[in-house]
Amino acid sequence: MKSHRFAVCILLYASSLSAPACGDDPDGDFVWRLDRVIPALEAHQAAAADEKFVYAITNRLVAKYDRNSGKRIAVSTGEAKHLNSGFFHEKRLLCAHSNYPQIPESSEVKVLDPRTMKVTTFHDFEDYGGSLTWVLRHDRSWWCNFAKYGEKNADTFLARFDDEWQETARWKYPPEVIRQIGSYSLSGGLWRKDALLVTDHDHGMLYQLRVPKDGDVLEFIGQRPAPFTGQGIAVDPATNGLVGINRAKKHIVFATPVAQPSE
Fold it and tell me: Which sign, positive or negative, has the C-alpha torsion 1, 10, 243, 117?
């Protein structure tokens, strides 16, 4: 039946373990476990969530799904070529957007109004030296990742901007991350307290980073396996967990921090 096609697939792991309370230290002793999935044909680039809905992001559109039933509610309208990860800010979904793989590179921040499902341009970077793959709001600043690919992927950089979109700082990524990502680059990012969690293009791994006190290279804290196949991730405000995708299976994926059992 059609309803089965959009049914939510529930997968629970380690049911005897409790998840850490909201606001736990991101360096704490837990692992990211798959909690549930929602089938979504648009789960190609990233996922994002608000309290009632989840959003699957593909190159040219965003699809809105009911988080309880798994039913697709609506799809976006408006021009887009290569959307990337999404971030909710003031009840609107900000999506990184680029003209990848065209040269010269051109990047924009697109904005989706979840009520109208209309996509418009929020900020235009034009050619800023890379392809924009995520945008975040943190500590009264904008944080944007500009990706480079192939032999130039070590030139990928994170830039911080003020409210007028004037750059205030930028950092490159540590070699511990760059040597693992292959010919692709970094696709998703989010802040969890004072740590930056980033994903690459096609590995189920969260790299944990910190802005250094000095220097222009982000500090590598560590990494943890995660039930995503790379691509864009976002905070799930309903669970204090994360939401991402399994690109091959076309699933929106929910992940929960679960305490590791004591030995």
Answer: positive
Which CATH number do you get for residue 51?
2.40.128.630
Tally of domains within the chain: 1
165-204 residues labelled b (16+ CB within 10 A) or e (exposed): eeeeeebbbbeebbeebeebbbbbbbbbeebbbbbbbebb
Question: Beta strands 118-126 and 131-138: pairing type?
Answer: unpaired
Assigned domain for 17 exists: no
- Residues in the chain with pLDDT values less than 50: 1-25, 27
Q: Are 115 and 102 in contact, with CB atoms under 8 Å apart? A: no
Q: Half-sphere exposure of 139 toward its Cβ, with a 13 Å CA cutoff?
A: 12
pTM score, two decimals? Answer: 0.86
User: Which residue, among 70, 96, 79, has the nearest Cα to 9 in the 3D structure?
Assistant: 70
H helix intervals, the chain: 2-5, 175-178
Answer for the pair 222, 252: CB distance below 8 angstroms, yes or no. no
Cβ neighbours, 10 Å, residue 81? 13
Q: Which ranges of 156-237 would DSSP assign to H, the alpha helix?
A: 175-178
Which structural domain, as residue segments, surrounds residue 152? 2-12+22-259
How are the residues of the chain apportioned to helix, strand and coil, as percentages rounded to the nearest 5? 5, 50, 45
134-173 pLDDT per residue, tens? 999 999 999 999 999 888 989 999 999 999 999 999 999 9
Residue with tokens 């500009």: 146
